[in-house]
Amino acid sequence: MTVFSHESFADHEQVVFFSDEAELYPPAMRSTGVSIAYNLAVTVFGGFAPFITTWLIVQTGSALAPAWYVMLAAAISLSALMMGRNLLKESFGRCSTMS
Fold first, then answer.
1. CB-hemisphere CA count at 13 Å for 5?
2. Cα dist from 27 to 36, 53, 89, 92, whole Å
3. How many CB atoms neighbour CB 66 within 10 A?
4. Which of 25, 55, 89, 95 can bridge 33 by disulfide, Cβ–Cβ 3.0-4.6 Å?
5. What domain range is 88 assigned to?
Protein backbone atom coordinates (compact mmCIF):
# COMPACT_ATOMS: atom_id res chain seq x y z
CA MET A 1 0.00 0.00 0.00
CA THR A 2 2.82 2.40 0.84
CA VAL A 3 4.53 1.73 -2.49
CA PHE A 4 1.30 2.38 -4.35
CA SER A 5 0.72 5.72 -2.62
CA HIS A 6 4.31 6.82 -3.27
CA GLU A 7 4.04 5.91 -6.95
CA SER A 8 0.74 7.75 -7.24
CA PHE A 9 2.25 10.89 -5.71
CA ALA A 10 5.28 10.72 -8.01
CA ASP A 11 3.05 10.42 -11.08
CA HIS A 12 1.04 13.51 -10.14
CA GLU A 13 4.23 15.44 -9.48
CA GLN A 14 5.57 14.61 -12.94
CA VAL A 15 2.39 15.87 -14.62
CA VAL A 16 2.93 19.29 -13.06
CA PHE A 17 6.61 19.26 -14.00
CA PHE A 18 6.01 18.44 -17.65
CA SER A 19 3.26 21.02 -18.06
CA ASP A 20 5.53 23.69 -16.54
CA GLU A 21 8.46 22.67 -18.69
CA ALA A 22 6.38 22.70 -21.87
CA GLU A 23 5.60 26.40 -21.36
CA LEU A 24 9.29 27.21 -21.74
CA TYR A 25 9.20 26.42 -25.47
CA PRO A 26 7.18 27.85 -28.35
CA PRO A 27 4.43 25.50 -29.57
CA ALA A 28 6.27 24.61 -32.79
CA MET A 29 9.22 23.07 -30.94
CA ARG A 30 7.61 22.08 -27.62
CA SER A 31 7.90 18.32 -28.08
CA THR A 32 11.52 18.49 -29.20
CA GLY A 33 12.55 20.86 -26.44
CA VAL A 34 10.93 18.86 -23.67
CA SER A 35 12.25 15.52 -24.95
CA ILE A 36 15.84 16.73 -25.35
CA ALA A 37 15.87 18.36 -21.92
CA TYR A 38 14.35 15.30 -20.23
CA ASN A 39 16.61 12.77 -21.96
CA LEU A 40 19.77 14.76 -21.26
CA ALA A 41 18.89 15.02 -17.58
CA VAL A 42 18.12 11.29 -17.33
CA THR A 43 21.36 10.40 -19.11
CA VAL A 44 23.60 12.63 -17.03
CA PHE A 45 22.05 12.27 -13.58
CA GLY A 46 20.46 8.84 -13.85
CA GLY A 47 22.94 7.05 -16.07
CA PHE A 48 26.05 8.11 -14.22
CA ALA A 49 24.54 8.02 -10.71
CA PRO A 50 25.88 4.55 -9.75
CA PHE A 51 29.37 5.49 -10.93
CA ILE A 52 29.32 8.87 -9.20
CA THR A 53 27.97 7.56 -5.91
CA THR A 54 30.47 4.68 -5.83
CA TRP A 55 33.31 7.11 -6.59
CA LEU A 56 32.10 9.51 -3.87
CA ILE A 57 31.96 6.73 -1.28
CA VAL A 58 35.47 5.55 -2.19
CA GLN A 59 36.91 9.08 -2.18
CA THR A 60 35.27 10.26 1.04
CA GLY A 61 35.02 6.98 2.93
CA SER A 62 31.51 7.98 3.99
CA ALA A 63 28.37 6.02 3.19
CA LEU A 64 26.49 9.34 3.36
CA ALA A 65 28.26 10.74 0.29
CA PRO A 66 25.37 9.81 -2.05
CA ALA A 67 23.08 11.98 0.10
CA TRP A 68 25.31 14.97 -0.66
CA TYR A 69 25.09 14.12 -4.36
CA VAL A 70 21.29 14.12 -4.19
CA MET A 71 21.27 17.41 -2.27
CA LEU A 72 23.57 18.99 -4.86
CA ALA A 73 21.30 17.80 -7.67
CA ALA A 74 18.29 19.21 -5.81
CA ALA A 75 20.02 22.58 -5.37
CA ILE A 76 20.86 22.70 -9.08
CA SER A 77 17.27 21.82 -9.94
CA LEU A 78 15.90 24.49 -7.63
CA SER A 79 18.14 27.17 -9.10
CA ALA A 80 17.17 26.13 -12.64
CA LEU A 81 13.50 26.27 -11.64
CA MET A 82 13.90 29.77 -10.28
CA MET A 83 15.74 30.92 -13.42
CA GLY A 84 13.05 29.35 -15.59
CA ARG A 85 10.35 31.15 -13.64
CA ASN A 86 12.15 34.47 -14.15
CA LEU A 87 12.55 33.69 -17.85
CA LEU A 88 8.81 33.09 -18.18
CA LYS A 89 8.05 36.38 -16.47
CA GLU A 90 10.44 38.29 -18.74
CA SER A 91 9.26 36.58 -21.93
CA PHE A 92 5.53 36.58 -21.39
CA GLY A 93 5.04 39.13 -18.62
CA ARG A 94 3.48 36.45 -16.47
CA CYS A 95 4.13 33.11 -14.89
CA SER A 96 0.87 31.19 -15.02
CA THR A 97 2.11 28.22 -13.00
CA MET A 98 3.39 30.22 -10.05
CA SER A 99 0.80 32.98 -9.71
1. 2
2. 15, 38, 17, 14
3. 16
4. 25
5. 2-92
Cα 89–chain centre separation: 20
Residue 73 maps to a domain: yes
Residues 79-98 have pLDDT tens digits of 887 777 776 666 665 555 54
- Please indicate, yes or no, if residue 40 is contained in any of the structural domains: yes
Rounded Cα distance, 67 and 76, in Å? 14
Q: Is residue 85 part of a domain?
A: yes
What tens digit of pLDDT does each residue of 62-73 get? 999 999 988 988
| pTM for the predicted model, two decimal places | 0.51
**Number of domains composing the chain:** 1
